[in-house]
């Protein structure tokens, strides 16, 4: 629906660059899926019509990975921000890609666990970026 898609230039420019030195390359549209099924449907449509897909977490990357150099649709996953499972016994947590490290640590407060700053960097790093980091750590 209308609140989950934008073709406004300001929104497209916001999603067409990260913290890198690369020049902004905005997508043709930005969508905010809120469930895995929506991501699947959007991806199938993009695949069918050969439209590039560009994932967007929080825009804190340093490599230019959100630049839509061939246009396409930006999938802003920030609204997929649920923490779906937490196991204190094996130090594991399942999160949707829009969960930030800061939100995860807020959720973990009082458990004796936290998610450290590592290669991810800022508190704004999203679950997609955190996936590279391997779990929660105790203190």
Automatic annotation (TrEMBL):
GO terms for biological process: lactate catabolic process. It holds the Pfam family FAD_binding_4. GO terms for molecular function: D-lactate dehydrogenase (cytochrome) activity; D-lactate dehydrogenase (NAD+) activity; FAD binding. One of its GO terms (cellular component) is mitochondrion. Residues 23-139 form the FAD-binding PCMH-type domain. Gene3D superfamilies: 3.30.465.10. PANTHER family: D-LACTATE DEHYDROGENASE, D-LACTATE DEHYDROGENASE, MITOCHONDRIAL-RELATED. Belongs to the FAD-binding oxidoreductase/transferase type 4 family. This is LDHD protein. It comes from Pterocles burchelli.
């Amino acid at each position: 629906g209308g609140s989950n898609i934008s073709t406004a230039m300001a929104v497209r420019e916001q999603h067409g660059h990260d913290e890198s030195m690369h020049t902004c390359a905005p997508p043709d549209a930005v969508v905010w899926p809120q469930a895995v099924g929506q991501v699947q449907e959007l991806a199938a449509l993009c695949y069918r019509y050969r439209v590039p897909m560009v994932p967007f977490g929080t825009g804190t990357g340093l490599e230019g990975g959100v630049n839509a150099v061939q246009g396409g649709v930006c999938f802003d996953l920030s609204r997929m921000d649920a923490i779906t499972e937490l196991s204190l016994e094996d130090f594991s947590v399942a999160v949707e890609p829009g969960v930030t490290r800061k939100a995860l640590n807020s959720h973990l407060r009082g458990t004796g666990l936290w998610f450290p700053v590592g290669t991810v960097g800022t508190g704004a790093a999203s679950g997609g970026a955190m996936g590279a980091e391997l779990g929660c750590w105790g203190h």
